[in-house]
Inverse folding.
């Protein structure tokens, strides 16, 4: 099945919904073909993330639905207070599309590593956080996210799908790809292509392993989290994010709120930036390839179960 | 309500009388928790002028998307805005008594739940870009309305002001008008002693803006400055209004230590008399410690 690109999806959506405007802080990687198609509805502010968010708030105030684009790290951090104050306080809607989040910044180095972006964005009341695992989820979600009332931070990823999806994207819903009751892997974003392999290795080793593709960190799928914690002997949150503030934090907050005691562990970046390099080597070096994840999860299982 | 009938000497007198009543409201908000009195008094005349002579807006047109927009970016001068809105029928005068009550939305910075408050502010350097979003949408829809945004001079320390100014120039937003309340002070210090802004007009010109400068307490000068907007083709306009922080109350004018004040009822009574030309108030409330 051929997938539409993000850009084509956005273009089609613009044609049917004249509220949509496409903005960028001179990062056109995902939207290079749109300027001639959208004319004045394509707004490039230059390398001015704060101004872009302020303008998005003003456009939203007038009823527009802005899609804003920049690298995740600059969008969510340089412009953080604008997102929090201009969009957040006002409850104004914009789709905040962050490029090369997490490990995807590969060779750029720590200045470009958005690995606290989820923590920041989910800390804003009402803000949704969507982490697509692949292009299929990304393009499926865009029309849905346009229709909600909430602003949403999108951790952009448009790679090929590593699995045949079992359920369509729904706001706040995870997708359970495999059932299991020894181990549950809660996977964030593009890491699905590695956690799928890890699930297979663990399953081959005789561990009944559940794989949840979380899709949204906010709103969190409380049902999926609750069921994993109650059913499985070990729940592992896998994310290319700081340990503090991301999926793992969201999960243990949810469980604590409900008074559920689960054996929940984290595989994330614990108080460190990652060593830059080409993506496959970064994954290997940080222990996030399918094989290495399986080994780490196996070790956690031996240690804690 | 750009009333040509008000222009001229009579109009100026009427505005001065209105501004005096606005200043009374500001002074009355400077107790029971207090307010940022100096910055409110400095921009009161300019805000009165905008609402009576410049803005195409009325209390019954707040949902009309062809109205002019006014954004108060520096925010802490909101008593001047609320005083003006109360005098012009946008909000009940009685409502000002709710200042700092948790049962209303009137506090030290603007809340857009208040009628005619287009956006919340207080964090400096935000509303130039927000107003640019509104101005951009108006252009996209082919509208003729204009967007005005008031900045403080201290606020012009913020990088986001200049970032936005650069973009507004590049985007040729000629339906956008910045008004700078040039009261020569930032919070506790004179601007020129800390981060000098002059020559301020040149800075805006360098960003591609048409500029004017006038006495922000002289209604005849304001009449001149705000005519024929935009001032030129294809670029945003800025009016730098030279003002005096604390204007109208000699006992606090240009006083670095009377930035935020919380006066006693007795001091408020004296200040109201001082406003009307009586003796200077004997202020005993503790002043801010400045350097
Ligand atoms: Mg000032």
């Amino acid at each position: 099945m051929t997938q539409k690109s993000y850009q084509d999806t956005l273009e089609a959506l613009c044609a049917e919904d004249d509220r949509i405007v496409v903005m960028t802080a001179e990062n056109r990687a995902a939207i290079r073909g749109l300027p001639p198609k959208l004319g004045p509805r394509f707004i490039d502010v230059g390398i001015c993330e704060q101004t872009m968010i302020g303008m998005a708030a003003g456009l939203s105030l007038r009823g527009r639905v802005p899609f804003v684009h920049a690298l995740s790290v600059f969008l969510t951090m340089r412009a953080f207070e604008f997102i929090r104050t201009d969009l957040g306080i006002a409850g104004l809607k914009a789709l905040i599309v962050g490029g090369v989040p997490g490990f995807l910044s590969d060779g750029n180095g720590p200045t470009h590593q958005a690995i606290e972006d989820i923590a920041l964005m989910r800390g804003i009341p009402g803000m949704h956080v969507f982490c697509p695992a692949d292009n299929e989820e990304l393009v499926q979600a865009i029309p849905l996210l346009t229709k909600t009332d909430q602003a949403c931070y999108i951790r952009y990823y448009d790679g090929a799908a590593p699995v045949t999806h079992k359920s369509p994207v729904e706001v706040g819903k995870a997708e359970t790809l495999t059932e299991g009751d020894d181990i549950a892997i809660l996977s964030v974003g593009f890491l699905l292509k590695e956690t799928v392999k890890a699930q297979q290795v663990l399953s081959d080793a005789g561990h009944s392993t559940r794989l949840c593709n979380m899709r949204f960190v906010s709103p969190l799928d409380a049902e999926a989290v609750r069921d994993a914690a109650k059913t499985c002997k070990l729940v592992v949150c896998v994310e290319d994010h700081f340990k503090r503030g991301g999926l793992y934090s969201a999960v243990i907050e949810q469980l604590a709120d409900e008074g559920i005691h689960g054996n929940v562990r984290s595989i994330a970046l614990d108080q460190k930036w990652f060593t830059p390099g080409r993506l496959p080597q970064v994954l290997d070096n940080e222990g996030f390839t399918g094989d290495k994840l399986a080994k780490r999860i196996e070790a956690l299982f031996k240690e804690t179960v | 309500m750009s009333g040509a009938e008000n222009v001229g000497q009579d109009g100026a007198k009427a505005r001065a009388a209105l501004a005096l009543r606005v200043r009374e409201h500001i002074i009355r908000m400077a107790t029971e928790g207090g307010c940022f009195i100096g910055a409110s008094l400095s921009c009161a005349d300019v805000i009165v002028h905008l609402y009576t002579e410049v803005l195409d807006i009325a209390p019954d047109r707040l949902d009309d998307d062809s109205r002019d927009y006014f954004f108060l970016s520096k925010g802490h001068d909101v008593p001047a805005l609320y005083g003006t809105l109360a005098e012009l029928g946008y909000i009940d005068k009685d409502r000002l008594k709710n200042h700092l009550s948790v049962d209303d939305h009137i506090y030290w910075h603007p809340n857009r739940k208040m009628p005619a408050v287009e956006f919340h502010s207080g964090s400096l350097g935000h509303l130039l870009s927000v107003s640019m979003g509104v101005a951009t949408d108006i252009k996209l829809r082919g509208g003729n309305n204009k967007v005005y945004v008031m900045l403080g001079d201290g606020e012009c320390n913020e990088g986001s002001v200049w970032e936005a100014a650069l973009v507004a120039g590049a985007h040729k937003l000629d339906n956008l008008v910045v008004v700078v309340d040039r009261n020569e002070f930032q919070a506790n210090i004179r601007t020129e002693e800390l981060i000098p802004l002059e020559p301020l007009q040149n800075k805006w010109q360098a960003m591609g803006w048409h500029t004017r400068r006038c006495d922000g307490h002289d209604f005849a000068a304001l009449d001149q400055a705000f005519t024929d907007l935009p001032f030129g083709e294809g670029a945003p306009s800025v009016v730098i209004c030279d003002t005096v922080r604390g204007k109208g109350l000699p006992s606090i004018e240009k006083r670095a230590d009377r930035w935020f004040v919380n006066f006693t009822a007795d001091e408020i009574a004296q200040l109201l008399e001082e406003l009307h030309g009586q003796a200077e108030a004997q202020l005993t409330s503790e002043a801010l410690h400045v350097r």
Q: What stands out?
A: The first strand of chain A starts at residue 20 and ends at 24. The interface with chain B takes residues 21, 40-41, 43, 45-46, 48, 50-64, 66, 81-82, 85-86, 89-90 of chain A (CB under 8 Å).
